[in-house]
């Protein structure tokens, strides 16, 4: 299914659902950046505080990938098409109700998911 066709099937109201990235799974492969029709994601460096919340395996992965991960900087533009969820090779993204998470300039903050 093309991105344009999928975009037409998205939620008409942005921001009811938002993508949450499992910080112990993301490997900054950027499939989400490429596939999102609404430019929700960027690949950025994790903060010191975010690094401290990772599992040991998560820290090792982060080291291998240069300290970079995907971040949902424009999560409120999400229209819940699900393309990012399906495209992530690490199964690191889930869609959750907006009211279940908090946000800041660094994106969505649900707490670190341990998997
Ligand atoms: S579900 Fe993912 S790909 Fe679709 S609009 Fe939301 S963030 Fe973008």
Q: Give the number of domains.
A: 1
Residues in helices, as a percent range: 25-40%
- Fraction in beta strands: 15-25%
Please count the helical segments: 5
Instruction: Give me the Rg, rounded.
Output: 14 Å
- Give the CATH topology: Alpha-Beta Plaits
Spatial gap, N to C terminus: 30 Å
- So what's the overall shape? globular
Based on DSSP secondary structure assignment, what is the total number of beta strands? 6
CATH architecture tag? 2-Layer Sandwich
- The CATH class label is Alpha Beta
Ions, cofactors, ligands: which are bound?
iron/sulfur cluster
| Neighbour order of strands in the largest sheet | 1-4
The helix/strand series, from N terminus to C terminus, equals HEHEHHEHEEE
Question: Which spans of ≥5 residues are poorly predicted at pLDDT below 50?
Answer: 111-115
Quickly give the structural class: alpha+beta
Mean pLDDT: 87
Largest sheet: 2 strands, antiparallel
Q: What this model shows, in words?
A:
This protein is an alpha+beta fold and 115 residues long. It is 26% helix and 23% strand. It has a single domain (3-102), classed as Alpha-Beta Plaits (2-Layer Sandwich), CATH 3.30.70. Strand 5 (102-104) and strand 6 (107-109) form a beta hairpin. The longest helix is centred in the middle third of the chain and has 9 residues, at 56-64. The site of iron/sulfur cluster has 14 residues, from helix 5.
């Amino acid at each position: 299914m093309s991105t344009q066709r999928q975009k037409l099937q998205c939620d008409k109201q942005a921001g009811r659902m938002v993508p949450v990235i499992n910080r112990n799974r993301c490997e900054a492969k950027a499939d989400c950046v490429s596939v999102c029709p609404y430019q929700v994601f960027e690949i950025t460096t994790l903060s010191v505080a975010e690094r401290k919340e990772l599992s040991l395996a998560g820290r090792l992965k982060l080291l291998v990938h240069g300290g970079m991960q995907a971040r949902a900087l424009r999560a409120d533009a999400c229209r819940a098409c699900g393309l990012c969820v399906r495209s992530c090779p690490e199964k690191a993204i889930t869609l959750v109700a907006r009211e279940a998470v908090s946000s800041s300039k660094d994106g969505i903050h649900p707490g670190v998911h341990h998997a």
